[in-house]
Amino acid sequence: MTVTMDDRHTLAGAYALDALDDGERRLFEAHLETCADCRAEVAELRATAAYLGAASAVPAPPALRDHVLSQIARTRQLPPPRRTARSARGVPRWTVNVLAAAATVLAVLAISLGVLAWQADQRADDLAAEARRVAAVLAAPDAQNAAAEVEGGGQASVVASETRGEVVLVTEDLPELSADETYQLWLIAAPDDITSAGVVDVPDTGDVTFLTAGDLGGVTTIALSVEPQGGSEQPTTTPVWAAELGSG
Amino acid sequence: MCRPLVVSGRVGSLVMDRVGRLDPVRGSGRPVGLHKRSTGTGAAGGLLEELLGRAARGDQAAFSALYDATSSQVFGTVRRVVRDPSQSEEVTQEVFIDVWRHAARFDAEIGSARTWILTMAHRRAVDRVRRAEAASDREHRAASRSTTRDYDEVEETVERSLEAERVRRCLEGLTDLQRESVTLAYYSGYTYPEVAQLLDAPLGTVKTRMRDGLVRMRDCLGVSR
Fold first, then answer.
1. What CATH code is assigned to B9-135?
2. Would you kindly state where each structural domain of chain B is located, as residue ranges?
3. Shortest distance, CA B70 to any CA of chain A (angstroms)
4. By residue range, what is the domain housing residue A53?
5. pLDDT for res A105
6. Which residues of B165-203 are buried (b: 16+ CB within 10 A; e: fewer)?
7. With respect to CATH, is domain B137-225 assigned 3.40.30.10?
8. A175-211 per-position pLDDT tens digit
9. How many structural domains does chain A have?
10. Residue B58: its chain A contacts at CB < 8 A?
11. How many other C-beta atoms lie within 10 A of the C-beta of residue A81?
12. pLDDT tens by residue, A41-92
């Protein structure tokens, strides 16, 4: 699970050439959000790749110009990005996102913990123990949060503590899967260094609080994918959800 | 490293940009906005950046000048990957609608306007061929395409400009594996695992060659952003 910075950075070339598939591209972009050096390198390599395109210039058919110009005349433009995205110099966007997400995670966890505690009263001590473990992960000094919307609907958030070696996944309104499919959680240190964190049994409500143990050394991204029942060794589909870890 | 001259005769009207240099507004021979001037954040000062900025505020005349300055580069980039002329036109049209819609999102801190536009063009072209081929057998596709075709073809299709010559020279300065990795990915739209298969090379090697190759190109071309 030891991944040097170089391993992750090697993908910068393939990324700049659009030679990554969608899944890897998304993972690499998540990595970029947290790596200013990588962003700088990618910017240069993209500019270099643009030279390759520019060197292939061929006059566009003249009729195309009229098509384009008449079409833009009736196409609405998107507004500028919200200022929060880059307003605070030195504070990367993901930090803002993560901080906002942390509030959600805490709110959701408060409810989940309440539910867990209630269930514990009702049923067995092991649930109470799990609730305590969840609380302990959340309270861990090195707890890291990440949250994002799930493709296809719903929300998922994680809290992870490397020292405790534990991850808590909290989902809301996850889409229901067919009987031969399951959700599976992945710990990703690099696109070629992915470890399963277990199959997540999501009830029909789509809401679950899932606690699992895992080695978080070097892990930068946590992802959720839909896999065949029983789970897979490595993800076989593009994750429906991927979140970059950041300290909360 | 100084300004490349246009060798092809396709330059229409010329305008002086604010540095007093000649920039072709029509035609594509000149790499407007991506040469020494685009060092660091200086890209914001280029003609294309200014046109894009005006287009972002709804200026259609500025947009049409931007189209004239970049359309053959966009079309050429797309056609290299997509091949089919009418599909290439469609994709080129999509790219420019995208440029118009997203103009306000362009960030000169990240790169020049030309890089921004050509990045969108290449991404869209690649998406188009991958979507179209997703249903068919990708391995078969990878195995059946010639590995040398694209590099050789530069000769016949490309508008000749000193910039294109420079790119060609810099490509020649790469090792064979670097050059093939870079061109198969960029010009043929293959993913790096497909390139690895085509070149019968390990995945890790191909990833590394793509990066090394681009880095060497960057240094050879004197690109900063």
1. 1.10.1740.10
2. 9-135, 137-225
3. 9
4. 5-85
5. 64
6. ebbeebbeebeebbbbbbbbbbbbbbbbbbbbbbbebee
7. no
8. 888 888 888 998 888 888 888 888 888 877 777 777 7
9. 2
10. 77
11. 13
12. 999 999 999 999 999 999 999 999 999 999 999 999 999 887 544 434 444 5
Is B79 in contact with A65 (Cβ distance < 8 A)? no
pLDDT of res. B16? 33
Q: Which among A13, A54, A65 has CB closest to B118?
A: A54
* Domain end (from A85, A104, A119): A85
Out of A46, A62, A85, pick the residue that ends a domain. Answer: A85
Q: Calculate how close chain A gets to B14, using CA atoms only, in Å.
A: 17
Query: Do A128 and A240 have their domain in common?
Result: yes
Lowest mean pLDDT among B11-15, B47-51, B117-121: B11-15
A184 plus A105 within the same structural domain: yes
Tell me if B50 sits within 8 A of B38, measured CB to CB. no
Alpha carbon distance B214, B179 (integer Å): 9
pLDDT tens digits, B154-197: 444 555 688 899 999 999 999 999 999 999 999 999 999 999 99
